[in-house]
Request: fold
Amino acid sequence: MLWLWIALGVVAILLVLVVVGYNRLVRLRNEVATGWANIEVQLERRGDLIPNLVETVKGYAAHERGVFEEVTRARAALQQAGGPAEAGEANDLLGAALGRLFAVAEAYPELRASENFLRLQDELTDTEDKISAARRYYNSTVQHYNTGIQSLPWVLVARLLGFHEREFFSAEGDTATPQVSFTPAA
Amino acid sequence: MTLQQQIRRNRLRSSIVVVGFIVLLGVVAGLIGAVLDLRLGVVALIGSGLYAIYAIISSRRIVARMTGAQEIGPEQLRPLRRLVENVSIAAGLPVTPDVRIVDDPAPNAFAAGIRPQTSYVGVTTGLLRVMPKRELEAVLAHEISHVRNRDTYLMTMATIFAGVIALIADLGFRMLLYGGGRSRRGGALVIVLAVIGLLLAPYAALLLKLSLSRRREFLADAGSAELLNDPEAMALALRRLQQDTTTVAYADASVAHLWVESPTSRVESERRGVLALSSLFDTHPPIEQRITALEESGGFRLPERLPLDEPFAVELGLH
Reply:
């Protein structure tokens, strides 16, 4: 009789542990989803600013076609990116393309004095900062989630229960944040 | 410990604090009821409960008044607002807390509010004039960590209850002393116990509150380092705060725990010579200890001299 009670107690404790552990994984997964949504908001804002920027620069430097095409291509690649890792790479490429666009803009004093251009440049710098902030948050949620489903005992059943590892945003993971500076050197 | 665990632990701790204070409140009311009048005890209990609810509801406004923090318009100080936005995003907060300005030459900052949705970060104009961007961002990240970890919630609760207990205990004590013989009940021993209890209760509440507050500072420093991926920035900011000798004019002792650096620390350290116990009553751990903790976890040594970058006020156009 006593053994039966002990067995029941052990089963009850195990059940509680399973429920708590499962709920924790669900919560971690939801945090990853929130983190990714935060990044998408900023990526979208950045994408929305670019056509405007390209048009503005075109108004002053119509013949610099190569740069415009590069930026437009990079933007399209970012919008079609399949997952966080791909989007991270596309985002870095877009940053580089924009860097070249601003380098080109350097040569046009009228453009640099244009209020519209300055505003767009400022907004893009801000968006870039926000993307890197959102990236830090997202990558930390991914790290916690991945660690959660890779540790015992969950590693044995995580896949069966539909918990799959998530990718980091950007190839380097959560190391130093690459800062793309849009501010023209004084 | 993950962030979410920390947040839940803080919520749990907040509940424990609330329960602890309610028990303490019950003891105080019970003492009043036992030696003075039962009805008086009940009135004290209900009155303090109502007052606590009122204080929780209006805590945002009260803190703003006690710190002298002014709201700023949405277009004012854009770059500052952006820094707060960025650290809030990095912290994964659902909304960006408001920014308020305290017109005071002493560099300091604080966070207030019960929920992230209603929280705000206050910075002194002195902070903007002293801190370069990197260090200012670290200080803001420290405050946002307080919001994220629900420290502001925990500390608001603790402050309100400590205040309520001090008030009632004081009231009961005075009535016992000056109320005259007719209002006293019970034997001499009961009265002596009640006097001791009423005298000690406010200190028990204060100690409970302060022990919470000091631990939260280390956590928020670590949070800042994590949010910005830059532990050195927070350490540099602390060193700069340490070297500054001005203290906040609005430094009301009742909100001292809110600030990034203790606003009254000069007075505190002068007193420490006399009263060795006083570190128990400090709201903040010594800055040196906080810097060392950051150095150890970040694996760096602070340089002898602070960088001479231009303060953020220049970018903001403040003079």
Remarks:
- Confidence is low (pLDDT under 50) at residues 171-186 of chain A.
- Helices of chain A lie at 2-60, 65-80, 84-105, 109-113, 115-150, 154-157.
- Residues 44 and 79 of chain A are 8 Å apart (CA to CA).
- Chain A has six helices and no strands.
